[in-house]
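2024-03-11 09:14:02 DEBUG pipeline.ingest accepted 1 chain
2024-03-11 09:14:02 DEBUG pipeline.ingest length=372
2024-03-11 09:14:03 DEBUG pipeline.predict start
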Amino acid sequence: MYIEQLLLKNYRNYTELEAHFENKVNVILGENAQGKTNVMESIYVLAMAKSHRTSNDKELISWDKEYAKIEGRIKKNHGSVPLQLIISKKGKKAKFNHIEQQKLSQYVGNMNVVMFAPEDLNLVKGSPQVRRRFIDMEIGQVSPIYLHDMGRFQKILQQRNHYLKLLQTKKQTDMTMLDILTEQFMTLASKIVHKRFGFIQLLEKWAIPIHEGISRGLETLKLEYKPSVDVSEHLDLSKMLEVYEQKYFKVKNKEIERGITLFGPHRDDLLFIVNDRDVQTFGSQGQQRTTALSVKLAEIELIRSEIGEYPILLLDDVLSELDDYRQSHLLNTIQGKVQTFVTTTSVDGIDHQTLKEAAAFKVEAGKMNRIQ
C-alpha cells in the first residue's frame, strides 16, 4: 500500500498543505523546526489516530484554530480509498471511504505504517513502558479486537486502581466490588497477554534472519516476553486465567495496602537477547541499534504477512543516527518494496541508489514543495 495524496488543514505549523507522493522513497529535506517531522507525524496520525510524539491531541491543532484536519488517499491492492481524520477539542472523528467510523478501533488498521525515529533506538534501552507501547501499537494495526480489548482494559484498570485507593483510605470496605472489577480485569488481561505472546513469536521469526544479516552472521537474536505473572505462551486462555486468579489472592492485601494494581499486562516487559545475553544490560550501543533496526524491519515483514501488502515506512531523522553499514542494510531491504518517507537536513554523505532515485521535497516555514 502507499499514500498517493496528503491534505492538511490547521495541522501544527501547516495552515494548508496538499502533497502528492510516489510509490517509492520520498525524501523530505529542510532545516530543523521548519515542519519536516510534522508532515511525517501527520501520516502516522492518519493511520493510527494518535501521535507518536504527544498524548495531548490539542498540540496537533494550529494555534488559535478550532480543529485540525488530515486527509489522505491510500492505494491498496483492491483499489484507492480516502481516509479522513478531524481532531477538535471535543475529540476525533474518523472516516474511511467517506463513512464515519463509530469507534477509532474500527478505523485503525485501514492504513498501515511503521515509524522509525531516533527515539525508537530507545526501544531496547528505554523503559518497559516504551516496549509495551510498541507492542500495543503494532498489534493494534493488524487486530482491531486487540485495540478494543486494550481500551476496555485501560478503563477497568483505572476503575480498579480508584477502588483500591478507596479501600486503602477506608472510604470503602465492600470487597465484592473489588472482586467484580478484578474478574473483568483478569479476563481482559489473559486475552491481551495471550495475543502479545503470539505477536512476539511472529516478530521473532522475522527478526532472527534480519538480525543475522545485519550482524554478518555473528549474532543470534531472541525475543522474550516477560509477564508480571507466571504464565507462558504454552498456556491456553482458561489456564492463564487460573494463574491470574492465584496471583490475585496472593497480592490482594498488598494491593489494598498500597492502593494500586500490582500485576497485569501494564507491568509486563519485552527482553531482547543477543548471543544469550540481555542486550539492554550487556549489549554495546552498536548491538542495541542493530537490535532496534532488526525489530523495525521485522515489523514491516510481519505486517505484510498478516495483511498481504507492505505498510508505509516513515524514517524520521534516523538515517543520520545509523552508521554507513546499517544505513545501507536498511535502504537495501526497502528498495523497490515499500513506500518510504525520509526526513533529513541533508542527503550528503548517504551514497545509495535508492536515494538517488527518490522523489524530493523541500520544507520551509510550514510550506512544502517538490524539488524537480
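2024-03-11 09:14:41 DEBUG pipeline.report The longest helix spans residues 175-214.
2024-03-11 09:14:41 DEBUG pipeline.predict end
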